[in-house]
């Protein structure tokens, strides 16, 4: 795609800006800022990836993955429930473990090679999906403990330990965090051709090969989101209780 | 014996309870009356160790609550809240919960006995509870509390949603546990007649303080 084509393609933005203006949605400013941010971020990433791909140094790959992990953990901070302390570190731990397990299995099984052009984009997908799942988990955990406080206390008053008293809330929170990934897996190929698969096909990869890659991506996303959510939620929920197993919200 | 020594509960600027001193002997039956917002429920929640006093200490058999494991304490002093909370989907989900807490098998015989005693024998254990009326939920919540008889049962207006007949059935069964198993009862009620008829002592709480204490029988 030439730069001229890309500039002409940007004319597509005129439509949502006009709609936003006519319908008084007050989104024009946000839209322009988000597009400018995306352009700047992608240009920077493009240069970084060019440098990394040329360098072919494992340490640079690992450093870049770690930077992605830190950014993802920073992005979960806003969703961390009020009762939970050290949310950044909990998220980072959950992301590191889920990414490490998933990527190690993919590399050991030969589904992925330790090559810069495979590790960076795939780990980016894993981390991004795990981050979204953790964010959904945090939001729902806070809601569950606040809205179902009476149920939890009724169970505590029968002598239940915190993990039994809040088992339903933990299960519901985990389900809600992972369901978007499961739902998107269900509709693969029917509703949408996923980004990675479409990208491969556009780049000239035969569809059957692209599909194999997409199936692997589906496995890894399900695994990573489940591991990350489980770790983040299981560490976080305990902080809703004090030493006397009383709710501190 | 349950003792509250100089208990104050003040989470914000104004105290909900202040300087409460109270001793309740094992097997004693005490009713608590007082206007809404006087601190009655907070007092029961403190006794159940669901909240801790900001000042003073609670004791069970001379030992401070702090020396007990919370789960051990709450199996001994069991609290039934005013709003009946139902667990899961079926009656069994509810009556089996106390056994699950103790990692034991649910005593189905006792569950069926209590369902009959509380006028819920028309339902079996697999009945879905989602459409239960307020009164049925209230009775099921008390049954759950009585699956294992604690040393002290704390009831917060436990029969407020019941008609006269069902209220009497619940009272009969709870006081049967008192007579046969030495259950101590601390019951918040707005029904003065009930508090005179059934209990050995009556406390009146007003503005976070015990304003009156009467021995009835």
Automatic annotation (TrEMBL), chain A:
It is a multi-pass membrane protein. It is found in: Membrane. Keywords: Membrane, Transmembrane, Transmembrane helix. It holds the Pfam family UPF0014. The chain crosses the membrane at residues 6-22, 34-53, 59-76, 88-113, 119-141, 184-203, 215-237. The keyword Ligase does not apply. Belongs to the UPF0014 family. This is ABC transporter permease. It comes from Terrilactibacillus laevilacticus. The lineage of its organism: Bacteria, Bacillati, Bacillota, Bacilli, Bacillales.
UniProtKB/TrEMBL annotation, chain B:
Residues 2-215 form the ABC transporter domain. One of its GO terms (molecular function) is ATP binding. Gene3D superfamilies: P-loop containing nucleotide triphosphate hydrolases. The keyword ATP-binding applies. SUPFAM superfamilies: P-loop containing nucleoside triphosphate hydrolases. Keywords: ATP-binding, Nucleotide-binding, Transport. This is ATP-binding cassette domain-containing protein. It comes from Terrilactibacillus laevilacticus.
């Amino acid at each position: 795609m030439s730069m001229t084509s890309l500039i002409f393609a940007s004319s597509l933005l005129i439509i949502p800006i006009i709609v936003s203006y006519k319908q008084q949605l007050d989104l024009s400013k946000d839209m322009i800022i988000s597009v400018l941010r995306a352009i700047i971020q992608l240009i920077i990433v493009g240069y970084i990836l060019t440098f990394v791909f040329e360098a072919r140094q494992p340490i640079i790959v690992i450093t870049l993955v770690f930077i992605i992990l830190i950014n993802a953990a920073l992005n979960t901070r806003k969703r961390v429930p009020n009762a939970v302390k050290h949310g950044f570190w909990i998220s980072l731990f959950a992301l590191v473990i889920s990414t490490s397990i998933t990527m190690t299995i993919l590399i050991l099984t030969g589904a992925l090679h330790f090559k810069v052009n495979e590790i960076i984009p795939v780990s980016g997908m894993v981390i991004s999906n795990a981050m979204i799942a953790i964010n959904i988990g945090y939001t729902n955990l806070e809601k569950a403990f606040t809205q179902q406080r009476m149920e939890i206390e009724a169970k505590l008053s029968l002598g239940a330990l915190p993990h039994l008293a809040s088992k339903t809330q933990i299960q519901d929170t985990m389900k809600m965090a992972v369901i978007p990934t499961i739902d998107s897996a269900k509709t693969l190929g029917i509703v949408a051709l996923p980004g990675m698969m479409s990208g491969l096909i556009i780049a000239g990869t035969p569809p059957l090969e692209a599909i194999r890659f997409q199936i692997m991506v589906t496995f890894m996303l399900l695994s990573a989101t489940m591991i990350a959510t489980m770790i983040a939620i299981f560490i976080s929920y305990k902080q809703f209780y004090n030493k006397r197993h009383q709710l501190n919200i | 014996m349950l003792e509250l020594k100089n208990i104050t509960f003040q989470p914000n600027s104004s105290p909900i309870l202040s300087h409460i001193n109270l001793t309740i002997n094992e097997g004693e039956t005490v009713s608590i009356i007082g206007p809404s917002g006087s601190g009655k429920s907070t007092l029961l929640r403190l006794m159940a160790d669901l909240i801790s006093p900001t000042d003073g200490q609670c004791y069970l058999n001379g030992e401070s609550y702090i020396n007990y494991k919370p789960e051990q304490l709450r199996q001994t002093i069991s609290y039934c809240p005013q709003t009946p909370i139902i667990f899961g989907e079926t009656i069994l989900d509810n009556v089996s919960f106390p056994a699950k807490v103790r990692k034991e098998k649910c005593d189905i015989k006792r569950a069926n006995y209590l369902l009959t005693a509380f006028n819920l024998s028309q339902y079996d254990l697999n009945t879905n509870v989602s459409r239960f009326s307020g009164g049925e939920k209230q009775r099921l919540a008390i049954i759950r509390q009585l699956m294992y008889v604690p040393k002290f049962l704390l009831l917060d207006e436990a029969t407020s949603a019941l008609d006269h007949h069902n209220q009497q059935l619940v009272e009969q069964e709870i006081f049967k546990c008192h007579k046969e198993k030495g259950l101590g009862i601390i019951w918040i009620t707005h029904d003065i007649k009930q508090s005179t008829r059934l209990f050995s002592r009556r406390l009146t709480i007003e503005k976070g303080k015990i304003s009156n204490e009467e021995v009835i029988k």
